[in-house]
């Protein structure tokens, strides 16, 4: 009897826990068999629990497509945009609403938003905030994909290769995680027609070959329509009206006209527009001095510098403002603020 027990305990030791060897086998009144059975079942439970938890343990350390790594922090997104994006009343309201709707309900299609405006008005910035509030890893998440036209698709002649690539990437990545996000930057510099490749993925299909594309998000960033947006914004200013009076409807009209008609828009006569597959056109208005000042303050704060009018004015002096007569808008928005702040801080 004892021998049998010992050999069993040896086997158990091999497995994992050597609790049994701690027990003296020859203690009076002990029933070795029940101990063995007990330990065996404890070990068995242990191993199976371990196996069952392995997935979730792994998911705690390795980014996975689940609630440990995905989030729906639309309130946080709203707060961040409200405090850190300057002069863009049309962006905050509409982008947050669109994402809330897409995340709250079972979406009927992928969410597609097209951001329009001059450089430095915050298009990339908003893309980053969205990533940070939907993925714990933010832009570094393996579920967030950034394509920059001049970097990823520089040669118009290779459009067919690019098409195959983009199609495979989207398919592969959404198969791995339906909540993937794709950001296409510099859409206006993409070979015309390339974007149409994503058409089937963002249309109203429940699934294609077993893959559900409806939970994904696509962002298109471009300068397209930027001049028209600026002209309209300036028009309001000339009439003595506040820019906050500009309604979404007015600007949407301006932007869609530009997107559809500007030959270099990347969306020029694109089926994406014709078929109404873009959920939201988002206009970014040109930045006035007061907005740029806020960007400078943010930058100084984030770098731990003191904020003074002297420094702010010095940074402003480094930037270009247009048009010639009124010098109302920063030519590069807030884009070069950080770099100019560094420069000014060097000389102080
Ligand atoms: C996902 O997209 C990236 C590009 O961001 C690509 O390199 C990768 O191969 C894609 N993954 C799959 C499984 O297709």
UniProtKB/TrEMBL annotation:
Principal subcellular localisation of the protein: endoplasmic reticulum
One Gene Ontology cellular component annotation held by this UniProt entry: endoplasmic reticulum lumen
Torsin-1A C-terminal domain residues: 288-341
InterPro entries: ClpA/B (IPR001270), P-loop_NTPase (IPR027417), TOR1A_C (IPR049337), Torsin (IPR010448), Torsin_1/2 (IPR017378)
A molecular-function term among this protein's GO annotations: ATP binding
Binding site for ATP: 117-124
UniProt keyword list: ATP-binding, Endoplasmic reticulum, Glycoprotein, Nucleotide-binding, Signal
Gene3D superfamilies (UniProt xref): P-loop containing nucleotide triphosphate hydrolases
Subcellular location: Endoplasmic reticulum lumen
Domain of life according to the entry: Eukaryota
Signal peptide: 1-29
Protein family membership: Belongs to the ClpA/ClpB family. Torsin subfamily.
Protein name in UniProt: Torsin
Organism ancestry: Eukaryota, Metazoa, Spiralia, Lophotrochozoa, Annelida
């Amino acid at each position: 009897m004892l021998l049998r027990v010992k050999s069993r305990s040896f086997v158990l030791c091999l497995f994992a826990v050597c609790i049994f060897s701690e027990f003296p086998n020859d203690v009076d009144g002990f029933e070795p068999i029940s101990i063995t059975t007990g330990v065996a079942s404890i070990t068995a439970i242990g191993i199976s629990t371990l196996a069952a938890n392995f997935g979730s343990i792994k998911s705690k350390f390795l980014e996975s497509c689940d609630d440990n790594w995905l989030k729906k922090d639309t309130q946080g997104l709203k707060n961040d945009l409200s405090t850190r994006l300057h002069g863009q009343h049309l962006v905050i309201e509409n982008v947050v609403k669109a994402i809330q709707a897409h995340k709250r309900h079972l979406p009927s299609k992928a969410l597609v938003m097209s951001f329009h405006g001059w450089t430095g008005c915050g298009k990339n910035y908003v893309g980053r905030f969205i990533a940070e509030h939907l993925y714990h890893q933010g832009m570094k998440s393996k579920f967030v994909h950034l394509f920059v036209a001049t970097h990823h698709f520089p040669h118009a002649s290779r459009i067919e290769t690019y098409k195959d690539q983009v199609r495979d990437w989207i398919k592969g990545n959404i198969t791995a995680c339906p909540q993937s996000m794709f950001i296409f930057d510099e859409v206006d510099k993409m070979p015309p027609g390339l974007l149409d490749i994503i058409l089937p993925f963002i249309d109203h299909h429940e699934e294609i070959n077993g893959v559900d594309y409806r939970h994904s998000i696509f962002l298109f960033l471009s300068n397209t329509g930027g001049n028209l947006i600026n002209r309209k914004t300036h028009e309001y200013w000339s009439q003595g009206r506040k820019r906050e009076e500009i309604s979404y409807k007015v600007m949407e009209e301006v932007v869609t006209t530009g997107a559809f008609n500007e030959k270099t828009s990347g969306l020029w006569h694109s089926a994406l527009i014709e078929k109404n597959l873009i959920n939201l056109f988002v206009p970014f208005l040109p930045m006035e001095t007061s907005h740029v000042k806020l960007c400078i303050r943010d930058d100084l704060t984030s770098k731990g510098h003191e904020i003074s009018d002297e420094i702010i004015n010095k940074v402003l002096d480094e930037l270009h403002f247009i048009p010639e007569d009124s010098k109302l808008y920063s030519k590069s928005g807030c884009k070069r603020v950080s770099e100019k702040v560094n420069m000014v801080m060097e000389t102080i």
